[in-house]
Amino acid sequence: MSRLSLFNNPLLLGFDEFERTLDRIAKHGAEGYPPYNIEQTGENGLRITLAVAGFTLDDLAIGLEGNQLVVRGKQTDDESRVYIHRGIAARQFQRSFVLADGIEVVGATLDNGLLHVDLVRPQPEAKARRIEIKAGGAKQARARAIDVSGKSD
């Protein structure tokens, strides 16, 4: 059984990696812990805030793996404590965020049980260039260029 591809249109070339990223997101979309917010902090700034109450700096790790920002947390049980009721479990987590090309991690802070990861999204440059067209085969006519920027000669 073949699956339906979102990018099977012949006009969409080179989107294989994008499609694999969407598949990866769909598989990990059911993660629920820890809760998080994503906010825009400026024209090009983003902030991911994760609620990590009970975790210390030593319990948390942030890394970039390919184009994914991965936040891991691991708490260890304190064997010296005797619980009568335990409603707050020491648990571990891994939360991944797929980053677009060019997004950079600026820094991270832990404040009052909230882990803030600041990102910056650079503005894309407008690119336009001319592609030279050469005659092929028996006819060796003069080379002609097409302006792909939309301007006419």
Task: Supply the key terms.
153 residues, mainly beta, Immunoglobulin-like, four-stranded antiparallel β-sheet, three-stranded antiparallel β-sheet, 1 helix, elongated
Short description:
The protein is mainly β. The protein has 1 helix and 9 strands. It has a domain at 32-124: Immunoglobulin-like, CATH 2.60.40.790.
Helices and strands in order, then pairings?
Elements: H1 16-28, E1 36-40, E2 45-51, E3 60-65, E4 68-74, E5 92-98, E6 104-111, E7 114-120, E8 130-133, E9 144-147
Antiparallel strand pairs: 1-2, 2-7, 3-4, 4-5, 6-7, 8-9
Please describe what this structure looks like:
The protein has 153 residues and is mainly β. The protein has a domain of 93 residues: Sandwich (Immunoglobulin-like), CATH 2.60.40.790. Helix content is 8%, strand content 36%. The chain contains one helix and nine strands. The strands form three sheets. A four-stranded antiparallel β-sheet has the order 1-2-7-6, with no helix packed on it. It has a three-stranded antiparallel β-sheet with strand order 3-4-5. It starts with 15 loop residues before the first helix and ends in a 6-residue tail after the last strand. The model has no long low-confidence stretch (mean pLDDT 81).
